[in-house]
Automatic annotation (TrEMBL):
InterPro entries: AbrB_dup, AbrB_fam. Pfam families: AbrB. One of its GO terms (biological process) is regulation of gene expression. GO terms for cellular component: membrane. The keyword Kinase does not apply. This is AbrB family transcriptional regulator. It comes from the Bacteria. The keyword Metal-binding does not apply. Keywords: Membrane, Transmembrane, Transmembrane helix. The chain crosses the membrane at residues 7-26, 32-51, 63-82, 88-109, 155-174, 194-213, 220-240, 246-263, 275-299, 338-356.
Amino acid sequence: MGTRKPIRLGAVALTIVLSVVGGLLFKLIQIPIPWLLGPMIAMLIGNNVVADRFVWPPQLRNAALIIVGYTIGLSLTAAALKEMAHELPYMLLMAVLLLAYCVGIAYVVSRFSGMGFRTALLGSIPGGLTQVIILAEETEGINITAVTFTQVTRLMMIVICVPLIVFSPILGQVKDASASAAAAVSAVAPSWGGLFPNILVFAVVSVVCAIIGNRIKLPTAYLLGPAIGTAIVQLCGLHGPALPGALTQMAQLMIGTYVGLMLRPRQLPNMVRNFTLAIVSGLLLIAGALGMAVLLSVLQPMSEATGLLSLAPGGMDQMGIIAHEIHADLPIVAGYQLFRMFFIFFLVPPLLRIVLRKQPRGEGRRGAA
């Protein structure tokens, strides 16, 4: 086994400075979710202008996921879990529709791009980034570089575009709702003193559940473990305190910085072609998620913003942060995101192996464009 590379503290400090500058700039120009999107865009630009100057330890990203997981767990009360149980048929319906839509996107991309269907399919599946890449590595004839780039670009587009759509007139009256919600929150803003002593119990439970979840290979363990642990402790009767805004903003910064450093288009051969395909695929996926959100809001008594955040395949951490910020129905958002994550984690890999096994294998060398 190779030795782990030491963390360069100077590079970490530089990364923090640039991320904070990005967050402050986005806050100044009033971009939605500035402490998530600002650091993300700052890292995307900085890391591709000056390579290998920025470092973000995974421990910081994991700490942020624990914070977000705790926030999601707070919303999973007994009443919320009962409401989620009633939503299960719709969760299954939307997961299947989204998956079928992504297969259609892959077919279109493969026909018009010359990219093989197998590669296009793995690039379009709305699963966890790590899971899809592992599956790509285990499948013959897959262009792993193209899959990784398409998945990361899609994730970036969704995380950037979804907040802008949610805060735009497209979904209607969201601005008014978010403004009134912000006024209500400011009137009862959580304080640092109000955290104690209960936060000590929840902090220990969240960290322990994150570690256990990671050991048992739970998907998104550092998010899902604390969410489950927090929900269980609350169901046992102990109240979990809401976190101060500064702490949730810090978590947003840590996640935004991590995601921004993931995308490195300079390392991709045939960058223009692959980048164009990734953008088109991402736009089609966002349009499809928006259409399904409208359908879901017709079928169920929920806002279109809640529906979009529930269905957008951008990761439960990012969608949970946005839902928390605009005071959407966080238990519903978390429930739909969680259901799709497990649906894809357990059912999609074996189904994909069956489908891919029937496709021709000569799509080009691994990692080549």
